[in-house]
Design the sequence.
């Protein structure tokens, strides 16, 4: 992507992100962090023919059951308050349902950062009723659910000024308590997590959740064992900020995790040993590259932009009502422009 194309993409995405703050879309807003300004895709259990979406309905939330293929609405129920399907990565990956599809977790959308309390609702999908509410002091976002639906994994934000300082915590839904110790890689217990979630892949049976992070000190894959409550950080010797748009693909019955960008396989990870293979040699420093050679990918600032704008949302609250219609139009134009810019930049 040329420098001129990059700047153009940056401009249109910034416009879209700003317009999103001024608009009030029918789909319930995303969890907030880590995926600010991203609405989760419809959520379904593995192999299920139905999916779940949430939509705003005044001061309540409409939880809809839809056909996974056609997205035709099958059932609808109104729930108290504002709730949403959690988006756990910037590619709109949803999460929050058990493999058997019987339990669903929704989260209260974020309105500001930091927030003093975070609320969740545990849903019985057969009756479409709330089993219980979970209220936690502090700023959290949803991360994963154990296959048996007994443990909820959360991202806990530790600093009101630094959104990249966080830890993984486990909440026991049976006892109704937050477990005291954060979940860390036993090989590097003192190394903090830092970065933004790009995408995720889920292992067979929902036991392992593999999340690609970038934008911190270096890219890595966070492998969370949701059955045993343990985690491993798999470092990737790749340039920081170059994996926006990448995806994770599982093969060999879950034994191999591939990092893919477009049609190119960048690296492979053995999920039994966490050994990384296929990483190319690091590129030469920018000063020694041939003239005109560019880094690949979109600048990571594009991903962080909605998060930065979130910190300004409080100042815009009073203007939302007056500018809602204008914001919707601006968002539509910005999205169209962003699409055209990406096409020309390829």
Sequence:
């Amino acid at each position: 992507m040329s420098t001129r194309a990059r700047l153009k993409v940056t401009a249109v995405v910034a416009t879209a992100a700003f317009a999103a703050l001024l608009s009030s879309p029918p789909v319930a807003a995303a969890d907030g962090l880590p995926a600010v300004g991203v609405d989760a895709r419809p959520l379904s259990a593995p192999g299920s023919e139905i999916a779940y979406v949430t939509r705003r309905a005044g001061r309540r939330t409409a939880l809809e059951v839809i056909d996974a293929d056609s997205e035709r609405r099958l059932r609808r129920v109104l729930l108290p308050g504002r709730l949403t399907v959690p988006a756990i990565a910037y590619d709109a990956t949803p999460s929050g349902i058990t493999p058997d599809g019987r339990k669903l977790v929704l989260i209260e959308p974020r309105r500001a950062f930091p927030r003093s309390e975070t609320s969740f609702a545990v849903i019985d999908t057969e009756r479409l009723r709330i089993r219980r509410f979970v209220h936690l002091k502090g700023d959290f976002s949803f991360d994963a659910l154990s296959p048996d639906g007994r443990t909820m994994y959360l991202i806990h934000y530790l600093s009101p000024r630094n959104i990249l300082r966080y830890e993984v915590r486990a909440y026991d839904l049976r006892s109704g308590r937050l477990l005291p110790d954060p979940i860390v890689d036993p090989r590097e217990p003192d190394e903090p997590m830092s970065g933004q979630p790009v995408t995720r892949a889920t292992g067979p049976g929902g036991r392992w959740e593999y999340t690609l992070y970038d934008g911190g000190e270096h890219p890595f894959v966070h492998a969370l064992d949701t059955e045993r409550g343990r985690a491993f950080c798999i470092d990737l010797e790749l340039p920081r900020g170059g994996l926006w748009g990448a995806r994770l693909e599982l093969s060999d019955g879950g034994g191999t995790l591939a990092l893919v960008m477009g049609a190119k396989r960048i690296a492979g990870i053995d999920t039994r040993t966490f050994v990384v293979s296929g990483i190319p040699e690091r590129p030469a420093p920018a000063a020694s590259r041939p003239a005109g050679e560019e880094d690949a990918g979109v600048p990571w600032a594009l991903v962080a932009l909605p998060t930065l704008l979130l910190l300004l949302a409080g100042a815009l609250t009073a203007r939302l009502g007056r500018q809602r219609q204008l914001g919707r139009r601006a968002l539509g134009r910005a999205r169209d422009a962003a699409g055209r810019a990406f096409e020309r930049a390829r």
Q: What stands out?
A: The two ends are 6 Å apart (CA to CA). The chain has a mean pLDDT of 80. Helices lie at 3-22, 301-310, 313-316, 320-345. The chain has one domain: 31-311.
